[in-house]
Design goal:
By secondary structure, the protein is an alpha/beta fold. It has helices at 3-9, 26-41, 57-66, 132-142, 149-162, 172-181, 187-194, 200-212, 231-239, 270-277, 301-324, and strands at residues 15-19, 45-50, 70-72, 85-89, 104-110, 122-125, 214-216, 219-223, 246-253, 256-263, 283-286, 290-296. Strands 3-2-1-4-5-6 form a six-stranded parallel sheet, covered by helices on one side. Strands 7-8-9-10-12-11 form a six-stranded mixed sheet, with helices on both faces. Helix 2 (26-41) links the parallel strand 1 (15-19) and strand 2 (45-50). The longest helix is centred in the C-terminal third of the chain and has 24 residues, at 301-324. The radius of gyration is 20 Å and the shape is globular.
Length: 326
């Protein structure tokens, strides 16, 4: 039996919900869309849902061009029941970046490190893979399921974004899936999406980050301002500095502070660093080269400044401790 066969064998309802992580990125959305269409071809209807908003311009354009339908979980509060079956993609139950919605999380498909906290009827968690979209693409090919142009384009874009165009965390399977989808993918759309990633307020966020950057040895910290949708991109940007091998970028949002971290090479595991640094005040995790986290906060400006200084100290301490054991 293939993974898809096993997955389908664990679904007991004619309709399921596919939940992405909060504030979904192209990989999460493409993965959910590909899975939705795959299930549809096997007679199972699916609704894609998420919490938060789609805050990057290029991600919104992907949704618009491909015609992907997503619902905010706030719209489903009166619809969901405890008996509804939920499939998690690009995240895992209990992670800081996904809300626990009403329903039974029966299946998890993810490429982040396994938190090993919850049981599912079916789990496909492969942290060695660069993008969740790669795993969904593999389901199509290993089961000889036809893939139309929209699906191939969405999955291709998801893989390219999450692996930084095959420059980060890439596996042999990521490359293989891109190669196999090449003829079916609309690269005019891919090019347009990759060249239309910024709007004016994103440039303002870059300016704020550049103005605020602090470098301690080779660790950088930068503030992008409030509600920044591109902190991950800015974290990549900061890591490009020759003086920096570990980048921490943060943005204040309603209810707390969102962080994005990047690590150069394999000596410092970004997921482990942020997880340990935020212990007791928030949550964080991810891959060795890229990770994210969130610290709940509801205080005044003075308290925020003190919290940010504490977060910086925590990162520096954890990095120093990890380096001392190398």
């Amino acid at each position: 039996m293939t993974k898809l066969d096993k997955l389908l064998g664990e679904i007991n309802r004619e309709h399921v919900y596919i939940q992405t992580h909060n504030f979904p990125d192209p990989d999460a959305i493409a993965s959910a869309y590909g899975l939705q269409k795959l299930l549809e071809l096997r007679g199972v209807r699916a609704t894609i849902c998420y919490k938060g908003k789609i805050d990057r311009y290029s991600t919104g354009k992907l949704v618009e061009i491909i015609g992907i339908e997503l619902l905010n979980v706030d719209e489903l509060e009166k619809v969901l029941s405890d008996d509804d079956e939920v499939i998690l993609v690009d995240s895992q139950k209990g992670n800081a970046n996904i809300i626990d919605i009403t329903g039974d999380e029966i299946i998890c498909i993810d490429h982040h490190p396994d938190n090993d906290l919850f049981e599912y009827r079916f789990r496909d968690i492969r942290p060695e893979i660069g993008a969740c979209a790669t795993m969904i693409a593999q389901y199509f090919f290993e089961n000889n399921v036809p893939m139309d142009r929209k699906i191939a384009t969405a999955l291709t874009y998801g893989i390219r974004i999450d692996t930084n165009n095959l420059n980060r965390g890439v596996s042999r399977l990521d490359v293989e899936m891109l190669y196999r989808m090449y003829d079916d993918c609309d690269y005019t759309v891919i090019s347009m999406l990759e060249n239309s990633i910024l709007c004016f307020e994103d440039l303002v966020a870059y300016s704020r980050a550049i103005s605020s950057i602090e470098v301690h040895d080779d660790i950088s910290f930068a503030d992008t301002g409030r509600d920044c949708p591109v902190i991950a991109d800015i974290s990549d940007f900061m890591l490009a500095l020759k003086e920096v091998t570990f980048s921490v970028v943060y943005s204040v949002k309603d209810g707390g502070i969102k962080l994005s971290v990047r690590s150069e090479g394999t000596a410092l595991d970004a997921g482990k660093v942020i997880g340990r640094a935020l212990t007791g005040i928030g949550n964080g995790g991810g891959h060795a080269s890229m990770a994210g986290g969130f610290v709940p906060f509801d205080g005044d400006a003075q308290e925020k400044a003190a919290l940010l200084e504490d977060i910086k100290r925590r990162f520096i301490t954890q990095i120093q401790e990890m380096r001392s054991t190398l």
